[in-house]
Design goal:
This protein is α+β, with helices and mostly antiparallel strands. The chain has five domains: about 10-15 and about 290-365 and about 745-820, no CATH class; about 35-135 and about 280-285, C2 domain (Immunoglobulin-like, Sandwich), CATH 2.60.40; about 145-260, C2 domain (Immunoglobulin-like), CATH 2.60.40; about 395-580, GTPase Activation - p120GAP, domain 1 (Orthogonal Bundle), CATH 1.10.506.10; about 590-740, PH-domain like. It is built from 21 helices and 28 strands. The strands form seven sheets. Strands 20-19-18-17-23-22-21 form a seven-stranded antiparallel beta sheet. α4 crosses α19 (about 750-760), α6 packs across α8 (about 375-385) and α10 (about 430-455) packs parallel to α15. It is globular. The two termini are about 50 Å apart. It holds the Pfam family PH. GO terms for molecular function: GTPase activator activity; phospholipid binding; zinc ion binding. This is RAS p21 protein activator 4.
Length: about 800
């Protein structure tokens, strides 16, 4: 039997070599990627006098706030549907999701929390999905940070000495945003206390405590950290238990120890089940990314398959991948493939191949691309990766108008509520028909404005998207020459049904708004999204059979379908596109990564920011520098070159009375280290800025490994109280913590690694599916036994060879990297 897969092969010279002499720190990167989707809550307790709550969620990684969901007002069953992906250092321990009730006049109330440890996530490699009950927040379990200890035996093992050096990142227990920590060291029934360090979460003690060892010696030495309070009882900050038996074998032990909650103390019965629950989807991926050249055999094989295109009479590798990928993994695989081929400049060819393979299947014109196949998922992912700026430009004005006007729009007679509309005059309440007519006019106005904007947007649509839709339009026309209408529906099935309409319905999830819509606005957006869907179906009358109350909107929908048809004709026009527009959109030499207004805190120093008279400046982060001006579009006041940035970190709340301040540590032109303190408006903006800065500066060779979370005020640092301004930092930097964003640059090695992980587990299913598909094409020469079949084609054999070589590289280098990073 001949080879069922077509394409150009490549020689053994391209196979990934083992790397015995490659430095582990340079050979690859070890990272953890956490995907979180906070779906909804139910049965939450009422915290307001109205019998309701205004819930939102705070996600903390090891007690550091990373993201905050939007507030859903006046409900005990909120829906958020918000997704986040966070890149973390592999040594993180736990994720805590706090459900809060927002209060305008007082401190926000804590409703409850869900805690998920790294160990729990490791037990669910495909991710955890389900409902989790909220538990009460126990202050004695809200511990964080580490303590530096040195424990040793003296006088031939007759005495035990514990030196408490310092601690870092302790929990904040006082209103000033700090704590007053001291240490209790206990052994064999005796306890000794350290001095109290006032107003510090990064205390330094350098105090030693000695104990006599009984015979036989007691097993455990306990070190507890407390927050001293003058009026109320002291607050527990965490503890460490050291095994004396293990110490006798080693003689001494020194290092940083993570503080743990005191589970030995009795707890009052907690309310379980009465605080409600959260529906979550959480997945942890530990990735070891090898050097680029290791992935070249796999990447080149995939590229050659795409370049060769669809060949009749065989089974394509992409078909095998589609057939063997489960529905729960197909979205991730589609995103990885789209980004990989975008980086290779072959996304147009990849999508065209998917279109051909999908159209080669038995299909009907009215159900084309309506399934969740690899082709549908890839095109949907492609639009989100390449078209978000276009989406914002098209939908933004109409969405903003709907949010600002807050008009009551309802067309369904069964849902009309006269009381929500009010009076049309001084003496007469509007009738139901008047309410629906007013709603029709408003909805028609929103739809008309949106369709007008879409109709004019063809020239501004990214060329790579236009090229993809042009291919789709042509392929469908060739497959269904008698159904020209199907060509237009094929385009709108992606553009309207999978892109525009979902963004209209949930603008928060597409970054069109910072908050969720209230009930009235949400209903308007739902009706508008439904109208966009019906226009996208190109047969508006078909929807009237299901929902007769949409009949008054039919003229507008029919006109909209004509507008959409004219728009698609322009969108897929056959005019020649410039070569640079067919692949990933070419970025200018300097690309804007993030910009916005930030408040500048003045401190002692000589940096360009400190010399500015303005307290609020417009900052612009590009791929070259962090610049600032007095207002958007104004002349630049100054800038900090990215190469001079050493760290981007958070600042302690007590330093400026705000928990949304970041610091940018940089070196000025004279080589002196300076720090700029910039305040953001919320925790989300703070982390977005930190993430953006860390991404663009991630390859700087002189990044700091430690920093001061406080400020140098008076004659000392507010965090650790050191009096030397040049004293090394007391806290660890967090360069590895970043948030994934749709505008992130492509990472081809990461996408290749994720595809390798997926394909590595599919080797036997790929063999079985190939044999199954070949048998379906015609009778084979005799029966095959279990695990045997016709010879595998050359490309499939080379795929398995590339996967095996990558596995060997991982097996050889991973232990060295793990030891280095540990």
């Amino acid at each position: 039997m001949g080879s069922g897969l077509r394409g150009r092969g490549f020689g053994a010279a391209l196979r990934c070599p083992l790397l015995p002499s490659y430095p582990p720190s340079l050979a690859m990167a070890r990272r953890s990627v956490l995907s979180i989707r906070i779906v909804e809550g139910r049965n939450l307790p009422a915290k307001d006098i109205t019998g309701s709550s205004d819930p939102y969620c705070i996600v903390k990684i090891d007690n550091e706030a990373i993201v905050r969901t939007a507030t859903v007002w006046k409900t005990l069953s909120p829906f958020w549907g918000e997704e986040y992906e966070v890149q973390l250092h592999p040594t993180f321990h736990s994720i805590s999701i706090y459900v809060m009730d927002e209060d305008a006049l007082s401190r926000d109330d804590v409703i409850g929390k869900v805690c998920i440890t790294r160990t729990m996530l490791a037990e669910h490699p495909k991710g955890y999905s389900g409902w989790m009950s909220l538990s009460e927040v126990d202050p004695d379990e809200e511990v964080q940070g580490e303590i530096h200890l040195r424990v040793e035996l003296l006088e031939g093992g007759q005495r035990l000495r514990c030196t408490v050096l310092e601690a870092r990142d302790l929990a904040k227990k006082d209103r000033n945003g700090a704590s007053d920590p001291f240490v209790c060291v206990s052994y064999n029934g005796k306890t000794q206390e350290s001095t109290v360090v006032k107003k510090s979460c990064y205390p330094r003690w350098n105090e030693g405590f000695e104990f006599e060892l009984p015979n036989p010696p007691a097993e455990k030495l306990c070190v507890e950290v407390w927050d001293w309070d003058l009026v109320s009882k002291n607050d527990f900050l965490g503890k460490v238990v050291v095994s004396v038996q293990g110490l006798q074998a080693a003689g001494h032990q020194e290092g940083w120890f993570r503080l743990q909650p005191d589970t030995a103390k009795p707890r009052e019965d907690r309310r379980r089940g009465s605080l409600g629950s959260l529906q979550l989807q959480v997945r942890l991926r530990d990735e070891t990314v090898l050097p680029s050249h290791c992935y070249q055999p796999l990447v080149q094989l995939l590229c050659q398959e795409v370049k060769a295109g669809h060949q009749a009479g065989g089974v394509h590798l992409v078909t095998l991948l589609d057939e063997t990928t489960t529905a729960e993994c197909r979205q991730d695989v589609a995103v990885n493939l789209v980004k990989l081929f975008l980086g290779q400049g072959l996304v147009k060819e990849f999508l065209d191949l998917l279109f051909e393979l999908e159209l080669a299947k038995p299909c009907e014109p009215n159900t084309l691309f309506r399934s969740n196949s690899l082709a549908s998922k890839s095109m949907e992912s492609f639009l989100k990766v390449t078209g978000m700026q276009y989406l914002h430009a098209v939908l933004g004005p109409t969405i903003s108008r709907v949010f600002e006007e807050k008009k009551y729009v309802e067309l369904d007679p069964s849902k009309v509520e006269i009381k929500d509309v009010g009076c049309s005059g001084l003496h007469r309440v509007q009738t139901e028909s008047e309410v629906m007519e007013q709603g029709r006019q408003l909805l028609q106005s929103y739809l008309g404005e949106l369709l007008d904007t879409i109709g004019k947007s063809a020239p501004t649509c990214p060329p790579v998207i236009r090229a993809a839709f042009r291919q789709l339009f042509q392929r469908v026309g060739e497959r269904f020459p008698q159904h020209q209408h199907t060509q237009f529906v094929a385009v709108t099935s992606f553009l309207c049904l999978r892109f525009f309409s979902p963004a209209v319905m949930t603008p928060k999830l597409f970054h069109l708004r910072e908050t969720h819509a209230d009930a009235r606005t949400s209903r308007t957006l739902l009706l508008l999204a439904k109208a966009v869907q019906m226009v996208g179906n190109m047969e508006p009358a078909a929807g009237r059979a299901k929902e007769e109350w949409l009949a008054p909107l039919q003229p507008a929908l029919q006109h909209g379908a004509s507008q959409m048809r004219a728009f698609i004709t322009r969108l897929v026009g056959t005019e020649e596109e410039q070569e640079s527009g067919e692949g990933w959109p070419c970025a200018p030499h300097t690309t804007v990564v993030k910009e916005g207004l930030l408040f500048v805190h003045k401190t002692r120093g000589k940096g360009p920011l400190l010399a500015s008279a303005s307290k609020k400046l417009h900052f612009c982060l590009t791929t070259e520098a962090l610049s600032f001006s007095k207002s958007p579009g104004a002349e630049r006041c100054g800038s900090i070159a990215l190469a001079n940035i050493r760290a981007a970190e958070k600042v302690e709340e007590k330093s400026f009375g705000s928990c949304h301040v970041m610091q940018v540590v940089y070196v000025d032109e004279a080589g002196q280290q300076e720090t700029a303190y910039l305040q953001c408006k919320c925790v989300n903006e703070l982390n977005q800025w930190l993430s953006a800065l860390r991404k663009v500066c991630g390859n700087n060779p002189q990044l700091l490994h430690a920093y001061h979370p406080g400020v140098f005020r008076g004659d000392k640092w507010s965090c650790c109280h050191q009096k030397d301004r040049t004293e090394p930092g007391c806290g660890r930097t967090r360069h590895s913590i970043t948030l994934q964003d749709w505008s992130d640059p492509l990472q081809p090695d990461v996408e290749a690694q994720r595809l390798f992980q997926h394909l590595h587990g599919l080797q036997q299913p790929l063999r079985e599916k190939y044999w199954q598909l070949m048998e379906a094409e015609g009778p084979q020469s005799g029966p095959r036994s279990c695990g045997e079949g016709p010879p595998l084609p050359l490309e499939l054999r080379r795929l398995f060879e590339a996967l095996q070589d990558l596995e060997r590289c991982h097996c050889q280098l991973s232990p060295a990297l793990l030891e280095l990073q540990t």
